Amino acid sequence: MSINEQTPPRDRIEPSTDWDKVRFRDDPRNNDDDYGYDESRYPPPAWRSRRVWRWGLLILILLAAVLVVFRQPLAAVFWPDTRIQQLLDQGDAALRIGQLSASGGRGARQYYEAALALDGDRSEARAGLAKVAEAALVQARQYTERKQYDRAHAALALANELQVPRANATQVADTLRQHEAGGSDIEPLLKQALAAQAAGRLDGAPDTALPLFQRVLSLQPGRIEALEGREDALSDLLKEAQALLAQGKVAEAGAVIARVRGYDPGHVDLPAAQAALARAGDNGVSRADQDLRARRLEAARKGYEDVLSTSPDEARARQGLDRVAAAYAEQARKQAGDFHFTEAEAALAQAREIAPQSAAVNEAEQALVRARAAEARLDARTSPRQRGQQLADLLDGIAKAEARNDWITPPGESVYDQLRAAQALAPDDARVKSVAARLLPAVTRCYEDELRGNRLRRAQACLSAWQTLSPGASALPEARRQMAQKWIAVGGERLGAGDVAFATQALNEARALAPQAPGLHEFAERVRMARVP
């Protein structure tokens, strides 16, 4: 038998190990105190925690809800082209269903105009408006065939507003007029108009001469009797206007002349009447200017308002009325500075009634609040030593507020508030006078520096402080105009990026600073067109 064939001895035991029962020193299952095992050293992974999963799921749900609710404003801010494309799509949809224009801003015209306001070079918006004009002409023809003449006139007016080709519009207008004339009995209308003219009932009601003549001419534009009757009636009205001007009743005369212009802008006697009205308006403005210089504010206000009632675009009268409001606001500031609050409130009410959005009115309101706060800090029973300490604290507060550029806000802690309090406490103190003389140049420098840096809010705060410290400064009107134009420029840039809310705010700021600022009207029109749901 060979060695390999020999069997091992039966008494030999081979080593074996149950590895599932072996415990190692670093095994988490080993709770033996000899190894000093601590379960806190081996926490489970964070991704296995149910609490982490629950919070993560909740955060994801909240983020999804925010994105759903605010998807449109977020898209307008971060992707302005998305907002423009959305407006174009909405305009296309409204055009397809025939909703060409709507007062609520949901018509095709309004959507295309809003897109054009955000991007003036968008050719799709211009093409859309041209389609709206053509669709309006189609609607006018359809309404004419259905004898819905009021709707036909409205559709034709929309087409003309969107500058449809004149030849096409004229053709539709002629067809509409022919249809209207074919279904109307003109002779009774003409007889009624002539009878009203003979009775001296020229205007003021639907059954008077001029409205009846207009109805006849709308149906038959060449009817000689109606043309001659209207001419004579308008001449009689202009004679009434001349009589009113001779009596100094400019507003009443202007109303009569406006009615004549509405009936026939080309009347032969109208230019002479308008020239007489303009001369009367110039005289009225001159008299109001004299009243304003003499501080007769109530008379000046009435004079300017009379002129504006007949000539709403009269710039001199508008500017004069703004000066009246500023004068009332200045009165309110002075009365508040002397702690005469009843008189200050009365003057402020007048200014607010004339120009509620004026920056001067806003500054007067703030001055009144500051004066009340300053009065509350003063106590006549304090000793000279205490008053001296109060003055020192105020001067120190002025220096700190100046370093922070807190010229007019916050109330009670601004440079201006504390200066007025110091002046009320010690008006003859040399330190107070020195601070007052030093602050005005500092405020003007602040305004110029902040404006150059396009920091509009801070620049406007410095401008307000300048106006408060020196309301009659000759450089203020130009500074206000510059500030307004800066608001217009920045607002226009933000509007182009889709930020309609900021553009609206910029428009309000510019309008309050300088209502006649160059470019304000155009910017206001862009903002108006961009405001769609």
From TrEMBL:
Protein name: Tetratricopeptide repeat-containing protein
Bias kind Basic and acidic residues: ranges: 8-25
Chain ranges passing through the membrane: 52-70
Xref: Gene3D superfamilies: Tetratricopeptide repeat domain (1.25.40.10)
Source organism, top-level taxon: Bacteria
Region span, Disordered: 1-25
Keywords, in A-Z order: Membrane, Transmembrane, Transmembrane helix
